[in-house]
Amino acid sequence: MKRQNQSSVVEFILLGFSNFPELQEQLFGVFLVIYLVTLIGNAIIIVIISLEQSLHVPMYLFLLNLSLVNVGISAVIMPEMLVVFSSEKTSISFVSCFAQMYFLLLFGGTECFLLGAMAYDRFAAICHPLTYPMIMNKRVFINLVMFSWVSGIVVATVQTTWVFSFPFCGPNEINHLFCETLPVLELVCADTFLFEIYAFTGTLLIVMVPFLLILLSYVRILFAILKMPSTTGRQKAFSTCASHLTSVTLFYGTANMTYLQPKSGYSPETKKLMSLAYTLLTPLLNPLIYSLRNSEMKRALMKLWRRIVGLHTFRFGKPCDIWSLPD
Questions:
Q1: What region, left, alpha or beta, does residue 180 occupy, with left being phi > 0 and alpha being psi -120 to 50 degrees?
Q2: What residues have CB less than 8 Å from 113, skipping those under 6 apart?
Q3: Residue 200 Cα to chain centre, angstroms
Q4: How far apart are CA 143 and CA 120, in angstroms?
Q5: Using CA atoms, how far apart are residues 20 and 103, in angstroms rounded to an integer?
Q6: Rg of the chain, C-alpha, whole Å
Q7: Pairing status of strand 173-174 against strand 90-93
């Protein structure tokens, strides 16, 4: 196929759940609520950690970066998805489709490595508590965060550029809710065998290598916890790890089903649902997982709330000293 045929496709059509038009309106309402709750929940975590000095430690600063990733994934996916749900067929330009795929891969790849870095942080804190400040010093923390974001950028740049270097000569209907790699690749009118080998290998490295490191970290953590003489110490250690382990299970479970499945293993509608689980459930539930199971986050949230109420009272009611409010 000649390269100039690529110019025959200047936009794509996102089909969404067009086979079930009667559900479109209800789905729009449901996903609008999910989008707003996701943004508000993650924004609260970002604000709390940014303002509360006691939370300026690696564990919570990693969580701040994770919330930024969650906001990014939702902002990339949800607005276009809501437009898809509001109509049977929605067009998206070539450039917009490129950008959506790029940032989805960027944030998804970054989250893989961030979760791995968070597991290493918990391993160092529980298995080597005396030397933890030296193991997870400021330089190491910054390097881990930078590595996570740079890795996401590299993955997104290589994969998205490669996909959109292929010729697209029609049809232009993407049987999906957004511009994900595999549905877009089905429209390519060229041999994609080499890219599929790269994509599968790259996915194994990006998804499975951090997952195996997380698994190894938690095996070591489990043995360390079981050796603790104090029941209170064991409970505190389990509580510290529970939120991260829940988030890891949710993220990697849905990501593995989405990206490491056989090419013809599921129907298009099932693939759409699995993509929704990966791109929507994790950003939606992470704020709940980390705030409801973490006493320090709950205390910081209540402290911020009392300050907001105190400021409101100072401005519109009886004056009071907001800084004298109890923690």
A1: beta
A2: 147, 148, 151, 152, 206, 210
A3: 20
A4: 13
A5: 28
A6: 22
A7: unpaired
Q: What is the pLDDT of residues 139-176, one digit of tens each?
A: 999 999 999 999 999 999 999 999 999 988 878 888 88
* The pLDDT of residue 265: 56
Provide the terminal-to-terminal Cα distance of the chain, rounded to the nearest Å: 68
Q: What angle do helix axes 209-226 and 94-127 make, rounded to 10 degrees? A: 20
- Kindly provide the residue ranges of all beta strands, DSSP E only, lying in 119-230, ordered along the sequence: 173-174
d(CA 93, CA 97): 6
**Alpha-carbon gap, residue 114 to 65, rounded angstroms:** 8
DSSP 78-130: HHHHHHHHTSS-EEEEHHHHHHHHHHHHHHHHHHHHHHHHHHHHHHHHHH-TT
Contact 178, 186 (CB under 8 A): no
Backbone angles phi, psi at 17, to 5 degrees: -100, 50
Predicted confidence at residue 301, as pLDDT, reads 78
Angle between helices 94-127 and 58-85 (to 10 degrees): 150
Distance, CA of 146 to CA of 207 (rounded, Å): 18
Alpha carbon separation from 82 to 24, 70, 227 (Å, rounded): 10, 18, 51
Of 150, 166, 194, 177, the residue nearest 268 (C-alpha): 177
Contact 16, 276 (CB under 8 A): no
